[in-house]
Structures are given as structure tokens and as C-alpha cells.
Amino acid sequence: MNTSNQEASPLTSAATNSKGQRLSPSALLEYCDHKIDREALKTLAGQSILHPRQFNRRSVVAIAQLAALLESRNVEMDKPLDGKIAITAFFEASTRTRLSFESAVLRLDGKVLSVPDGQVTGIAKGESLADIGEMFNTYGDVVIMRHPDTNCLDEISKNLQRPLINAGNGSGHHPTQALIDWYALLKWRPELCRSDCPPEKRVHLGIIGTPGSMRAVKSFVRLALMFPGAVKKITLISELADPVGLDLTEPIEESAIELEIINDVQEVLPELDVVYVNSIAFLGDSYRKLDARYKLDAGSRLKSGAVILHPLARNDEVSENLDETEHNLYFAQAAGAVFVRQSVLASVLDRLDRISGLGES
Amino acid sequence: MNTSNQEASPLTSAATNSKGQRLSPSALLEYCDHKIDREALKTLAGQSILHPRQFNRRSVVAIAQLAALLESRNVEMDKPLDGKIAITAFFEASTRTRLSFESAVLRLDGKVLSVPDGQVTGIAKGESLADIGEMFNTYGDVVIMRHPDTNCLDEISKNLQRPLINAGNGSGHHPTQALIDWYALLKWRPELCRSDCPPEKRVHLGIIGTPGSMRAVKSFVRLALMFPGAVKKITLISELADPVGLDLTEPIEESAIELEIINDVQEVLPELDVVYVNSIAFLGDSYRKLDARYKLDAGSRLKSGAVILHPLARNDEVSENLDETEHNLYFAQAAGAVFVRQSVLASVLDRLDRISGLGES
Amino acid sequence: MNTSNQEASPLTSAATNSKGQRLSPSALLEYCDHKIDREALKTLAGQSILHPRQFNRRSVVAIAQLAALLESRNVEMDKPLDGKIAITAFFEASTRTRLSFESAVLRLDGKVLSVPDGQVTGIAKGESLADIGEMFNTYGDVVIMRHPDTNCLDEISKNLQRPLINAGNGSGHHPTQALIDWYALLKWRPELCRSDCPPEKRVHLGIIGTPGSMRAVKSFVRLALMFPGAVKKITLISELADPVGLDLTEPIEESAIELEIINDVQEVLPELDVVYVNSIAFLGDSYRKLDARYKLDAGSRLKSGAVILHPLARNDEVSENLDETEHNLYFAQAAGAVFVRQSVLASVLDRLDRISGLGES
After folding, report:
1. Which band of pLDDT confidence, cut at 50, 70 and 90, is reported for residue B8?
2. What's the confidence (pLDDT) of residue A285?
3. Terminal C-alpha separation, chain C
4. Nearest residue on chain A to B289, judged by CA atoms?
5. Is the pLDDT of residue A12 over 80?
6. pLDDT grade, residue A117 (50/70/90)?
7. What's the pLDDT at C359?
8. Helix%, strand%, coil% for chain A, nearest 5
9. With 50 as the cut, is the pLDDT of residue B5 above it?
10. Does C281 sit within 8 Å of B126, measured CB to CB?
């Protein structure tokens, strides 16, 4: 194998967060005896990543394992995405998500065609998404798209023949963000990857937000429902009477996990092991900001050892005075994003055999 | 030759359109006995590509041949643009054209400096194009520019010492688009590349649009006039009394091809072998949309075997219900864009010797 | 050493200005007996470049020497920034500066994550610069930032753990521009790099502008004060009573260089060896344009042999009719920008050992 040792590159050597919990990827790898579920990853080859329903507990864990291997530095890579071009088509601007994907592509030695703001650069002036998909067929090998319309995936897929990665479709889903959220949880507590997680390690999950209209929250809940052995209860905290939304109704009914909906965060906060918060303002101009009573700060009655997740960017719903505390898992969560996206891209583009340490091929 | 076999890269392996006619590049190559006119390509070395008058039938065919070789996958390349930086300077936004050029550069292992929207990113705030040209001298090796002002080429050329590729100058020209149009025609019917095309293969060309004010149409006609052995007649269909414009008057007079101008598309449609359509709305804010009677759909009285060309993006002047028909050559046309631009870039940057299969050097 | 000979790349071979003085980098290298002060460069390894006070005469000269080596083509490089990602985060748009940095990164075989316009792409919508810095930790290896707020450096540095290069912070500083200005002066007259410059080579420096509110001017003066052996006098020409500003008061007091402030450029113009001009309009919307009496053209009473510096972009404060004259050092100055930034990046990212001709390692 003509390898380029990752140790030579400080890219991975110091890729850790500045504050809050610092999670070692080794813990997860050791918990799995360094065996990565390559078969589960191979099922993604050539596939589009559109909706969290495409995953199951096994593939979520496998993606996290490969992300951990990549983050661990203990890996040799032979330019995994050499000769591949990824198109980042952001019709709804999001520098954070775009740069995260582009960094993942570049670190795997792929190339990037970037559309930082499809709405203003004229790409969509009157042109149909179907025609744009036809165009992308000959420009690149994989398309990473964010778009404000929930129906965008069907539209572009009319002609697109390349794998499509959904980086957020309107009020639909944001599947790779949910994978990132779960990577953070699995690094934090590797026992959660088991179907029979020890009872004392199982978590009570609190979610401040509205999965029905917030795609990142919705995708996170969708994956959480795949971990009945690890999640003992989900509490949705929302000011709305029905925050769940149609898309989750059936998965919730079919899951063995108890789900309750309450209005007052104070009521349940001291019981939660994991608190997931999102920033409404970032979901679109028509959304309100989170009400003041749902905001968390260092004075909030968080359980000892409880951790906060936030997909970022944040406004003031999670105070900066929490950054230096043990509750801050959101910085570690953000620090894992590039590795999870590398894991997804190497799998989708079928280049796992260029990454050593993945076991038999 | 230290080669990187293109077969390893799916970039070229499946770079075909989803619908309509799928054109094999092999047909053109075989028709030419796989002999590519390398001498014609070498005349482009170090040259700017500003105006279609720089080409002739021989060089148009040679560029198409190299594009076909690149599209055929039966080629080995030694990083043709290694160490070269292309600047894509789009003072008028066009994601389609910009990405097409950038994809071409990246596939030849060149690098890109991208200015997605020069009008809003401050590059042109008060600064002269001459000064911008001076700046580009030290930033890159070739400049690919689109600009709303027709005079932009003279302005930037005051100081620019690098080859300049005109990707659309106001109501001027768009020479590489015309090369792409002709690549589609030559793949579709290779006999058209001959000066003595068999009579039954010669085409009656219909053009719906106004070459005088539409640069893509103007450039296409300019190249068409270089193929008197292949084009038996050109019919311009326009609502204007004089759609031709000054720039084409002399070439039309000097050409052996008959050119007629009519107002009613229905009158001539059943006789046309090739129908070229453009979308007025994309040419600038002050242009009108095409009148409804000029629109084509699956019910239009197209001749059997007739093909439609459109430089895209389209609005509704070519209905999506034509996409699945044999008349749809516009998707194949779009699919050839990246290969034609690779062909031009490798020639201009004088790196033909890094592409195998081009005959003696 | 697995080298890629730069001679193969026309990037450096013709990287010279089209008009005005053409400066050979060899003169500076020969003046220093081709000995580059590697120790001075090594002090920059891992450092952020925020303020000109971080430099001294020795390091300014060393950076210029390495820039000259890179510009001279007489150098072999082993992909100095291989595996490194630079993030160009421009919250205040500046295509000139952004492309210059990106070109420098690409020429050293690094990779780029580009944020062409942070203000409009949503990166800053409500998100703190501290959170953005945290994000950048895991996305890249060095951050190059321009921002309209003078306090931005402190803000982003709260969490950022990667070297930060200040590409302009509000009315603060623009240190790499000042290095570029001095690179031009040292190429023009290599004797200026000495602490004991021969008297007849010492220069009277005139500066048309307001260092107190113009960051490029301020940074240039700050470096000039480090060259008391070369600069015999600085004359500030401004319509303001106190153009100096707080940041420069102490350095001026401590410097051995005489500094005078006058209002009328005509009074001193015939005595100046170097005239530094800036374009106020480019500093922000709230700044006025330079008054007509401060404008220079071919009719201005410039001393024979005097040279004009301008960080560009310019409006009309330096007339284009000066471009063809010997006074035009500003085009040569601009042509050196990419080499100086390469010099800084290779030093900061500690990859000097991948550039041959730098002496012992």
C-alpha cells in the first residue's frame, strides 16, 4: 500500500475542542476491540444519504467506529478520494456545514466544487432542480446539497445519477448531523452502542425543541429511536401541543422507547442524562427564537454528569458560561463532524479499501 | 510516462446524460481513424480564447476530437495541468459555466482560484479591470472571465499577460459554448466534420433567437458559417426585423451557406434537422422572455430525427416533456461541456504532451 | 528529497508586473550573499501573525529573503504545505487579498477552505466569533481572517487553537501587507536591509494618508520605524491635525527616525524618495475619498528616481498615466504579494525544511 501516514499531518493531531469535555476516540475503538463493522459500511457504497431511516443501530455504530479510527490518527490512508470531485451545493447558506463537508473531502484527498450560496449566484434563477441535477451528473461524483425546500430531494433526483447527500432539506431531515450527534454520544459512553447496554449506563434523553419543524432535531430523534437498548426514555420539551410531526409518529409508535412530551423544562431537567438543544433562529426567517425559559446556563439545575448537545450554530439558548463545564459536550460534538463526514464519504464513494485498519477487505 | 489511468476514476466512466440521446464519443474518434489533429491544437498554445473568429473548421474539429478522446476513457494522463492555477473570475454570476470550467481544471489536476460573484465581493468596487488584470498576472496561469460589459476583454487585456478565456462578455461572444454546441453535433453526426459531407447528411439549421444580442447564439452561428460543406441552410427565426447584428454581417456575406430570416417558427419547423434554442431570460435583466409561439414541446411538429440544441439553463422555451424523446440533444450537449473545456485548457496551457493517444509530439 | 522542480511551472517563471519598475529578486539575494536568516523565520513557527510589533528588522528582512528565493525560481520545493488546510475567512470582502493568500497556499501545495463573504453567507448570523474560532479548530490548520471589527482578533482567539493570520482587522492592522510593502522596497534598494545603510541610499519617506484610521498605512509606518538605519525621515501628509493615532505614538517616540506631519503634499513632494499612497474609499463605507490635492499623476513634481507605493486597489489617487513611468513601484509591489505570503505561511506552518536553498536545517 502506497500510504501517506496521517501522523505527518497535524490536521488530525490536534483536532480537538478547546473547552468542555474532550472525548478520546480510542475509548470507542477499544470498547469494540478495534473491530470495525466493515460490512455495514459497505452497504452505503453508491447510495444517496437522504433520510435517517436508511440507517439502523448497526450502521450508525459502524460509521462512528470509522470516524473514531480516522480521528485516532492510528490509520494509514492512500488518498481515499483521489480523482473524486464533490459538489457542495448550498441553496441555503450554511458556512459551518459546507466547510465541514469540504474539509472532510480535502482531508481524504478529494476535490471540491463549491456553490457557497446557490440562491444569490444565479444557479436557481428559473432553472429547475431537475436540470441542475442533470448538470451535476457530468461535473462531479457526489453532490452534497442543502436547500430550503423540503421537496428538493425528489426534484433533483429526477435526473441526478450521482450519490446525493442531504445536508438539510427545508423542514425535512439532516441525516449526517444526527450521525455526528450520535458519534459524540458513543464516544462519551461507548456502552450505548450495545443492544444490551448495562442498565446504569442507559440514558434519559431530553430534547428542547420541535422535531416536527426542526430537521436536525427530527433526525436526531429518528436515530435515537434505533437505540432502545441504550435510551430508557425520551422527553420532548416544547411549548407546542404537538411538537412531534407526522414523520416521526410511526417510528415512535414502533419503538420500545418511552416518549413523553412536556412543556416545562424545569420539571424534568434534573433527571436528564443528555439534553439536546437547538437554535430555532437558525432554521429560517419565519421561526421564532426559543423562549427564555428554555435557555440553559451554568445556573440551570443540570444533573451531575449530564451533558448538553447542540448542533450549532447557537444563539443564546446555551450560555457561554457553560462552555468551561463538564456539561459541555457540544464542542466535542462539533469537533467530530469532519470525521463523521469523512466516514460517510469514504463509504458512499466506495473507497474503504484505501483506509488501513478496517479489517479484511 | 508516469501515468494515472483514467479508468480508475468514475469521473469519466459514467459521465453521460440521464435522458435523451446518449452520444458515444467513439463514433467521432472512429470516423477520424483515431487521428487527432494535434497541429491544429498546438496553434492555441499560449493564446487567449476571446472570439469564435480565432477558430476554423479544422480547429473546431480538433478540439472536438480531443474532447472525445477525453470522454472515451481510453486515455492516459500525466496530471496535465499540474502546477497550474486557473482563475475563474465571474463578474456576472453563472454557476453552470463556472462549475463546468472548474470541473475541467480539477479533472486535469490543475488548481482553481474562484471568484463566484465579482460584482458583490468587492473586487470591482471602483477598481479598473486593467488593474484587476495586473493582479491576475501574479495569481494564476490562465484567467476565465465572464463579465456583463462587452468591452471587458479589451479592458482587462491592457495589463493581463496570461491567456484569457472569454466565458461570456456582455452581448459579445461565448466561444467555448459554441465549441460545446459543435462537439454535440459532431458526435451526433461525425460526417459533419468533413468539408465534403455526403449530401444526405447535410443539415438544415434552425435558430430560434437573436444572434445580434444573444452571445451564445451569435457564437454558434459564427462557427456554423465555417461548415459550408455540412450546413446546407441556416434559418433564423426571430420576432425582430433584423436579428443578425453587425458582428455577423460580413461573415454571413462571405459564407457559402444560405441564410434566411423568418418570423414564424411553425412555417419552417418540419424542415429543420437541428433546432437551436436559447433562453432569453438568462441573458440579462433587460431582455424579454421568448414569446409563447417560439416554445417547443413534445407536440411541436418536429421532423423525425431532428435534434434540439440549447446551451442551458432553460426556462420553459423547451418543455420538459421533450426530455425523454430522441429530439433531446441538449442533455448530451451539456454533458460534453466539461470535456470540451478540458480540451481547450490543455491546448491553451500547452500540456498536450501529457495526454496519451494524441499521436506524435 | 523528493522534489518538484519549480522551473517546470510557469507560475513563477513570468510572475512579473506588466508596467513600471520590474524588480529582480536576485538583487536582494545577492546582496545577502544568498544567505537567508533561517533562525529569524523559525521564530514564526506556530505563531499567529496579528500585529506588526511581532516583527523586527531582522525578521522583516528574513521574510523578504525567502520571498525573493521563492520568486527567483532557483528553488526546489517538496510540497511544503502538503496535508495542510488554510481557511480564508473574509467577513469583509476583499477579493484581492483573499486570492493572494489562496494563490500562495495553492502554490505551496496546500489546500484551501474559502469563505469569500462571511457577512452574507450566514456564518455570522448571530454566531459569536468565539464559536466560529472553535469551529475552525477542527476544519483547518491555519486561519486567515479579515473582519470589519478591530476587536475581532481577541474574539476569535478565545477558542481558536490554530495560528491566525490577520488579513485586516477594522481600523487595526494589516501586517502581511506591510511585509509586502517592505519586500518591494528591499528589492528596489537592497541596501535598506542594513542597519548601517550607506547615507546616499537612505530614504525620505512620504506617506499620504492617515495611519490612525487606515490599517495598511499604520502597519507600514510601524515597520518603517524598525529601519532607522535606512529611513532618514518620515513625512506624514494628511488633512487631519493628528493623523497618527494612539497605536503609533509610542513607537514613534522610541524610534530614532524623525517624523514630521504636514498638510500640503506639494511642499514636500520634490524631496521624497518614496511616496506611499492609499485609497481611503476602500477602507469602508464611512470613509471619504482622498481630497483632489493629494492625488498624484504624471504631472506631479516627483523627484527623479522617486518611487510610489500603493497597497491597491486604487481609485484615482494615483493616475494610470503614472503606470508606464519609473515612479511606478506599486505594480512590482503587488507582484510580490504572493511570494511574501508564501514566505509567511511556510514559516508559520513550520515547513521551511521542505524548501531547498534555505541553508542548514
Report:
1. very low
2. 44
3. 13
4. A126
5. no
6. confident
7. 63
8. 40, 15, 45
9. no
10. yes
- Cell numbers found for residue A357: 485498519
Judge contact between A105 and A48, C-beta under 8 A: no
Q: Which candidate from A9, A99, A335 shows the least CB-CB separation from C83?
A: A9
Quote the distance between the C-alpha of residue B282 and its chain's center: 16
Categorise residue A45: left if φ over 0, alpha if ψ from -120 to 50, beta otherwise: beta
CB atoms closer than 10 angstroms to residue B288: 9
* Exposure b/e, B290-303, CB count within 10 A at least 16 = b: beeebbbeeebebe
The answer to whether A314 contacts chain C (CB < 8 Å) is yes
- Please name the amino acid found at residue C291: D
Flag if B128 and C320 touch (Cβ within 8 Å): yes
Tens digits of residue pLDDT in A256-286: 999 999 999 999 999 999 999 987 644 444 4
Helix-helix angle B57-72:B337-348, to 10 degrees: 110
* Cβ-defined contact of A138 to B334 (cutoff 8 Å): yes
On whether any CB of chain B is under 8 Å from the CB of C324, the answer is no
Residue B10 confidence class, pLDDT cut points 50, 70, 90: very low
A85 touches B at CB < 8 Å: yes
Contacts of A11 in chain C (CB under 8 A): 83-85, 141
Do C346 and C46 touch, CB atoms closer than 8 A? no
**Count of Cβ atoms closer than 10 Å to residue B7 Cβ:** 12
Chain C contact for B45 (CB, 8 A cutoff): no
* Interchain proximity B313–A126, CB inside 8 Å: yes
Region B284-295: what's the mean pLDDT?
63
* pLDDT at residue C316, as a whole number: 87
CA dist B295 and B301 (Å) reads: 12
Distance of CA C9 to the CA centre of its chain: 25
> Where do we find the cell 414564424?
B264
Query: Given a cut of 80, is residue B138 above it in pLDDT?
Result: yes
Pairing of strands B4-5, B76-77: antiparallel
The answer to whether residue B324 neighbours chain A at the CB level (below 8 Å) is no
State the Cα–Cα distance between residues C8 and C14, nearest whole angstrom: 12
* Confidence band, pLDDT 50/70/90 cuts, at residue B322: very high
Q: Does A305 touch chain B (CB under 8 A)?
A: no
Average per-residue pLDDT in chain B? 90
Find chain B residues with C-beta within 8 A of A83's C-beta: 4, 8-9, 11
Q: Residue B231 half-sphere exposure, CB side, CA atoms within 13 Å?
A: 27
pLDDT one-digit tens code per residue, B249-275: 999 999 999 999 999 999 999 999 999
Which residues of chain C are within 8 Å of residue A279 when distances are taken between CB atoms? Answer: 126
Element (DSSP H or E) covering residue B58: helix B57-72
Give dist(CA C190, CA C275) in Å, integer. Answer: 18
Contact B130 C16 (CB under 8 A): no
- What are the chain C neighbours of B135 within 8 Å (beta carbons)? 96, 99, 312, 334
CA dihedral in degrees (A297, A300, A305, A309; nearest 10)?
Answer: -50
Q: Which residue ranges in chain C fall short of pLDDT 50?
A: 1-14, 121, 124, 281-287, 361
What is the nearest CA distance from A197 to chain C, expressed in angstroms?
A: 31
| pLDDT band at A288; cut points 50, 70, 90 | low
What length is written for chain C? 361
- pLDDT exceeds cutoff 60 at B288: no
Residue A18 is nearest to which of C116, C118, C161, comparing CB atoms? C161
Q: Which chain B residues contact residue A87 at CB under 8 A?
A: 99
Report the pLDDT averaged over residues B50-70. Answer: 97
In angstroms, the CA C338 to CA C15 distance is 10
- How far CA B303 is from CA of A297, B122, B308, B326, in Å, comes to 72, 50, 11, 11
Quick check: B360 pLDDT over 70?
Answer: no
- Say whether C134 and A95 touch across the interface (CB within 8 A): no
